[in-house]
Amino acid sequence: MNSNNFIIWDFDPVLFSIPEVQLPFSISIWGLVLAAILFYFGYQQIIPKVKKGQEPEPPPPAKFWLLLVGSIIIAQLPFLFIDSPSLNSIGPLEPRWYGLMFAMAFITGYMIGFKMFKDAGRSQEELDRLLIYVLVATIIGARLGHVFFYEADYYLRNIHLIPQVWTGGLASHGAAVGIIIAMYLYARKTAKTTFMWVADRVVPGVAIGGMFIRFGNFFNSEILGMPTDVSWAIIFAKVDMLPRHPSMLYEALLCILVLVVLGWIYYKYEKNPPEGSLFGTFLVMLFTGRFLIEFTKETQANFLAGAALDMGQLLSIPFVLIGIWLLLKKVNWNKAGAPLKKK
C-alpha cells in the first residue's frame, strides 16, 4: 500500500496553548472551595423574588460580580493565617479539541432536551435537574465502564487511579448504563413522569452527543480502526503510517442516522411519540451499528484478542435485545404517548 494514496491525519489535539503565568501572590485551593460555597448561598439571596409559576430572572450584573469578587476575597482571608495547599502559578493551559467536543455534546443535547420538554409543557427547572443527573452519570458510568470492561486487572491493582478521568479511559457502554440508571432515579423523584417518557426525550440528545464525542476521538487519533486498503482509509500519523478504517467517523455517521430516524418518529406522531418508541429505536439502531462497526476496530480489550467477538460487541448485544423487546412488546404504535403535563 502506498501511503501517498491515502489521507494523512496529523492534527494537533490541543485547541490552543497559554503559557504558564506566575501569580503575584498565592491563592489557597481550599479558599477557592470556600468561595464556591459562599457564592452558591449568596446567589440564592440576590435572585429577584418571583411569584409562583413565574420564571426566575437573573440578578443584576453589578450584584453578580460584586458577589463573585467578594466571595473570592473573603474566602481567601482565613487562609492567610491557616496553612493550605496553594497555587503560585496558572498554566500552562492547553484546552483540547476533545474537551470542546465533550462540551458541545452536552450543550446540543441540552438544546434538544429543552425543545422536547417545552413541547410537552414541562419546565426548564425539570430539565436542568435532569441534566445534572445525566452529566454525573455519564462521567461516572463511562469511567467505571472502561475500568471494569477493558482494564479491570490493571485498575484492581491500582484502585487509586480510578478517579483520574483526565488521564483517559472512558467507555460508551458504561456511559449508557449510567444514563439509564440516572433516568430511572430521575423519574422516581419527579411527579407525573415515567422512565420511558424521560428516556424518549434523553436519547436524541445522547445521539448527537455521541457524534461530537466521536469527532473528539478523531481529533485525538484514538479508537483506531484496523489497517485496510479501502479508498477512504486514513493514516493517523501520530500513531503509525498504516492506512486504517476511520472507525470513530463511522460511529459519528451512525449517530447522525439515529438522530434523523428519532426525529422522524417524533414528528410523525406530532411531538408526542408512543412511550418507549424513541428509546427502543435508539437501542436497536445504535448498538446494532456499534456491533457491526466493531469488526473494523482494533481490539481494545487485550484479554479478548483472537476471540470471535470483542468486548464492544459483547456489550452491545444486551442493549439490542432490550430494544427489540421494547419495540415489539411494550410500544403501542397505534397510540401516541400521554402528554404528562404538570397541573
Polypeptide structure, described:
The longest helix has 26 residues, at 124-149. This protein has 343 residues and is mostly helical. The protein has two domains: 26-90, no CATH class; 97-330, no CATH class. The chain has helices at 29-46, 61-76, 97-119, 124-149, 152-157, 172-189, 195-220, 247-268, 277-293, 311-330; strands at residues 7-9, 21-28, 86-90, 234-236, 243-244. It has ten helices and five strands. The strands form two sheets. It has a three-stranded mixed sheet, with no helix packed on it. It has a two-stranded antiparallel ribbon with strand order 2-3.
Radius of gyration: 23 Å
> Based on DSSP secondary structure assignment, what is the total number of beta strands?
5
Helix count? Answer: 10
Helicity, as a percent range: 55-70%
Q: Look at the structure and give the mean pLDDT.
A: 87
Major β-sheet annotation: 3 strands, mixed
- Work out the count of structural domains: 2
Terminal-residue CA separation: 66 Å
Order of helices and strands: EEHHEHHHHHEEHHH
Spatial strand order of the main sheet: 1-4-5
Structural class: mainly alpha
* Estimated share of beta-strand residues: 5-15%
* Principal-axis shape: globular
Q: Uncertain regions: pLDDT < 50 for 5+ in a row?
A: 339-343
Helix and strand arrangement:
Elements: E1 7-9, E2 21-28, H1 29-46, H2 61-76, E3 86-90, H3 97-119, H4 124-149, H5 152-157, H6 172-189, H7 195-220, E4 234-236, E5 243-244, H8 247-268, H9 277-293, H10 311-330
Parallel strand pairs: 1-4
Antiparallel strand pairs: 2-3, 4-5
